[in-house]
């Protein structure tokens, strides 16, 4: 059987190289790496994430990976200092913005810090709530057609299936004149509507909160303060109010347990069937019935991030590079995103290093990379 891209004369060499490699990876070692990576929260710019970068560097060197080094960049990484969501009418109530600890799972008892959306605007706003489905333009068009004024309102929207980036939801709400946006995971999309919830199954329990960034990186990618050039130490930076990718709207993630309290208070017409989620309540458009206060206060710090890079020099065409990598930073523990990939990357590095120490050389240079701050930008 042939392999695409390989001549018949080199097929045997490739087969033997693959057979040697496939004897090396170990599922138990991947589990060990995963446990170490997820032992503590490691948000971008944190001491724990710096420690993991140095740990990776040391491991790769010990395994025989070449030219292993850490590349640093100084980027805008705003951390939340205060986040509150309170309903002021029809009754006083405050969202927990916390995920429940799971009995028997001590990791879930750790405090990961405030629940927030990175790059949310800071402020203190109060407004009537509208439910806007997945927060796409056509959903606001429907609300407007019902005579619901959007100016100054607070939108409650779902993390959507099919996927719609939370930053796009924030930009859409900002363009429509809303003062804030709350984004929650409906149980129809990530919860009991899909199957058993954690810890009995893989789906989100009622307190599950999906953190994330909301920069408009589809307009200008990367660090908002260095658009189009590298964020190296000492680089020129633009003012934050001139940065196209920094939102001017406030945004906070919610659990569906907290979102339900607001949804139950909404008045207005019932929304189209395709907007209705898995909660056993009417889904109404709002504009009346519920008034919410949002408070977000974030710093504006530039923090250092670390990318670990290593190479295995190619024997025949070293100038051609094959890049393999994954990001390392996580919003909390990062069990799936990114540590499932980071643990696999570690075992790949160990296995490739074993081949190199045994005399193997790839045809082209292999570059391994573990980068930082993907979750923010």
Key features of this structure:
single chain, 377 residues, alpha/beta, 7-stranded mixed β-sheet, 4-stranded mixed β-sheet, 8 helices, elongated
Please characterize this protein's 3D structure.
39% of the residues are buried. The chain has helices at 8-22, 27-37, 47-63, 137-145, 166-175, 187-190, 256-265, 339-357; strands at residues 66-76, 80-89, 93-94, 117-118, 123-131, 154-158, 180-184, 212-213, 250-254, 286-298, 302-312, 317-327, 364-371. It has a 7-stranded mixed sheet, sandwiched between helices. α2 (27-37) packs across α8 (339-357) and α3 (47-63) packs parallel to α8. Helices cover 25% and strands 25% of the residues. By secondary structure, the protein is an alpha/beta fold. It has 8 helices and 13 strands. The chain starts with 7 loop residues before the first helix and ends in a 6-residue tail after the last strand.
Mean model confidence by pLDDT: 95
N-end to C-end Cα span: 43 Å
H/E topology pattern: HHHEEEEEHEHEHEEHEEEHE
Largest sheet: 7 strands, mixed
Quickly count the helices.
8
Pick out the low-confidence regions.
Answer: none
Give the spatial strand order of the biggest sheet.
3-2-10-5-6-7-9
What percentage of the residues does DSSP assign to strands (E)?
15-25%
Work out the helicity level. 25-40%
Number of beta strands:
13
Helix and strand composition category: alpha/beta
> Could you say which overall geometry the principal axes of the C-alpha atoms support?
elongated
Radius of gyration: 24 Å
Give a concise summary.
The chain has 377 residues and is α/β, with parallel strands linked by helices. It has helices at 8-22, 27-37, 47-63, 137-145, 166-175, 187-190, 256-265, 339-357; strands at 66-76, 80-89, 93-94, 117-118, 123-131, 154-158, 180-184, 212-213, 250-254, 286-298, 302-312, 317-327, 364-371.
């Amino acid at each position: 059987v042939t392999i695409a891209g390989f001549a018949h004369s080199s097929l045997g060499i490739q087969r033997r190289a693959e057979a040697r490699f496939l004897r090396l990876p170990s599922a138990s070692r991947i589990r060990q790496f995963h446990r170490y990576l997820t032992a503590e929260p490691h948000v971008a710019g944190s001491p724990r994430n710096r420690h993991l970068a140095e740990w990776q560097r040391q491991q790769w060197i010990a395994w025989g990976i070449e030219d292993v080094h850490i590349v640093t960049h100084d980027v805008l990484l705003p951390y939340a200092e205060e986040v509150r969501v309170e309903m002021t009418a029809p009754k006083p109530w405050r969202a927990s913005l916390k995920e429940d600890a799971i009995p028997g799972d001590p990791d879930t008892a750790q405090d990961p810090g405030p629940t927030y959306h990175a790059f949310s605007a800071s402020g203190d706003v109060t407004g009537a709530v509208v439910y806007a489905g997945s927060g796409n333009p056509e959903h606001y068009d429907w609300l407007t057609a019902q005579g619901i004024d959007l100016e100054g309102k607070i939108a409650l929207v779902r993390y959507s299936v099919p996927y719609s980036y939370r930053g796009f939801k924030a930009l859409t709400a900002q363009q429509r004149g809303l003062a804030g946006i709350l984004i929650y995971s409906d149980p129809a999309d990530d919860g009991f509507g899909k199957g058993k919830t954690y810890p009995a199954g893989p789906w989100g329990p009622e307190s599950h909160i999906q953190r994330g960034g909301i920069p408009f990186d589809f307009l200008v990618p990367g660090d908002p303060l260095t658009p189009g050039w590298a964020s190296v130490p000492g680089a020129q930076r633009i003012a934050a109010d001139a940065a196209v990718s920094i939102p001017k709207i406030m945004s906070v993630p919610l659990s569906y347990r907290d979102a339900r309290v607001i949804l139950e208070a909404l008045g207005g017409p019932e929304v189209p069937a395709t907007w209705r989620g898995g909660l056993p309540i009417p889904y109404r458009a709002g504009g009346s019935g519920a008034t919410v206060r949002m408070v977000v206060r974030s710093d504006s710090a530039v923090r250092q991030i670390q990318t670990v890079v290593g190479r295995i020099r190619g024997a025949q065409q070293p100038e051609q590079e094959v890049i393999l990598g994954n990001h390392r930073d996580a919003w909390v523990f990062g069990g799936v995103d990114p540590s499932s990939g980071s643990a696999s990357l570690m075992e790949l590095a160990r296995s490739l290093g074993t081949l190199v120490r045994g005399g193997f050389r790839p045809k082209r240079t292999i570059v391994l990379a573990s980068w930082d701050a993907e979750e923010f930008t």
